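INTERNAL TRANSFER SHEET
From: sequence group
To: structure group
Subject: Glucose-6-phosphate isomerase

Please process the attached sequence and return the structure record in the designated field. Keep the field labels unchanged so the import script can parse them.
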Amino acid sequence: MSSLEVVWSDLVRHRQELSDFNLRSAFAEEADRFERFSAEMDGCLTLDYSRNRIQDKTLMLLENLMLQSGVAERYAEMKSGVAINNTEGRSVLHIALRGSVDDDLVVDGQAIAADVNAVKERLYAFAKGVRDGSIAAKDGKPFTDVVNIGIGGSDLGPHMVTAGLAAYHDGPRVHFVSNVDGAHMGDTLKVLDPARTLFLVASKTFTTQETMTNARAAKEWLVAALGDDAVGDHFAALSTNKEGVEGFGISTERMFEFWDWVGGRYSVWSAIGLPVMIAIGPEGFEEFLAGARSMDEHFETAPFRENLPMLLAALGLWYRNIWACPSVAVLPYDQRLEFFSAFLQQLDMESNGKRVRRDGSDILRASGPVIWGQSGTNGQHAFYQELHQGHDIIPCEFLVAAKPTDADQHQHELLLSNCFAQVEALAFGRTADEAKAQLEASGKSAEEVAALVPHKVFPGNRPTSLLFYDKLTPKMLGRLIALYEHKVFVQGVVWGVNSYDQWGVELGKELANKLAPAVKSAERGEGDPAILDRLKAYRAK
Ligand SMILES: O=P(O)(O)OC[C@H]1O[C@H](O)[C@H](O)[C@@H](O)[C@@H]1O
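Return from structure group:
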């Protein structure tokens, strides 16, 4: 057995040792659980992971798993520009986007920091111009609205961050259109004035069906109102595909490039972040980058027991592979992070939702779990029932700020108390004796008590981790995203997958393009004839 397989079997055996583990008794017996199982970075972000089914030995074994899997070695390869995205022959260097000009990161023998900086300067100048009106609409007046047209990595990151930093917006309004469903573009344009609207076409490849369709629709809408010559002033492109951008009619002066070593789901730090720069300004965006950079440094230097991404990754592996938990709920108690779990779905599931290892061999164990969630307290009134009393154990990651950015203090205290209450209820539950005492105290008869007790028992012992931070600033959001990026990286290395390709998305895309003509005419064509027949019938109604 390889030394890595030995660690996996150590972990399986260790789970048996913990078969009677219960968070209630663990907390009763170990007054120091918070001290032992929490880590802080920069004095403003704490990961409290004390309410997990772990002991010191668990962490020792998980640390060994990281060592044996070669996490540090793979990270060194990544930083040195090795094409760790082996199926596409690409380096993976999104960390360079938040680095400094003095960094010596190299791709294909070329230093990249200077290029990164040059594009960033152009982006900042453009964002500033749009914000102060010096980059204006066709009529010379400032833009009031910016529409980002993109999908996947060219939408989820900037959309989530723009919403997350709403307290810092002081530029034009920013909208996001992603879905090929014409209703998305239609509903967005309905409230906009073409004379005041700037479109950003965001697409790494500049070939994605949804984005190109929406971009053409936007162009038609604009041209119909303002004429052909408005396109130059009212469009800009964020892409790696110069020919595609020019072909669409956007000049290279209005194109902001990035590079094939930036994966779509890791691209919010690049030109894809332009909507955020326009919304909060370049200074705010610099803070956002600085937050991510501080997480990079933390990840590179903090010892395992203090290393937030390592710990989050380790706990994820523990539950996914040793406890067979199929999903993880991400629950930000922050309305402005309402798109955070949707963003993480792409980051995590597109990266590690794989069935073969880098060399094409079978992984032989479960890889990326289903990531899902919603902002608190909304989720409490929807799916928390299942978290508390459902059949599956669903580890939860809660996120909450100590202080509101600009919201009411009293309401923020209620938000915090809801978050802490959930964490406590999931961990400690309610025993049958407690349920009985409560029902008796409420005056129920003995029969009623007996009938209701089973329904009122909360098993507890449900694992949660809490990311507790001072305030949701641009810097903090940068830290949080980079934290999850590194977590995904670590897990990908342990599972041995290529976290930077996404072949699984391709088949559906190919088939959609193939079926488009058949759907258009609703005639029998390629694909499932029965459903096309039904389509024809419904259309004829
Ligand atoms: O930016 P684009 O080239 O338009 O790609 C947008 C998205 O397309 C696909 O769905 C990929 O799976 C995503 O990773 C990517 O972010």
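Handover comment: The first strand starts at residue 38 and ends at 41. The chain has 21 helices and 13 strands.
Transfer complete.
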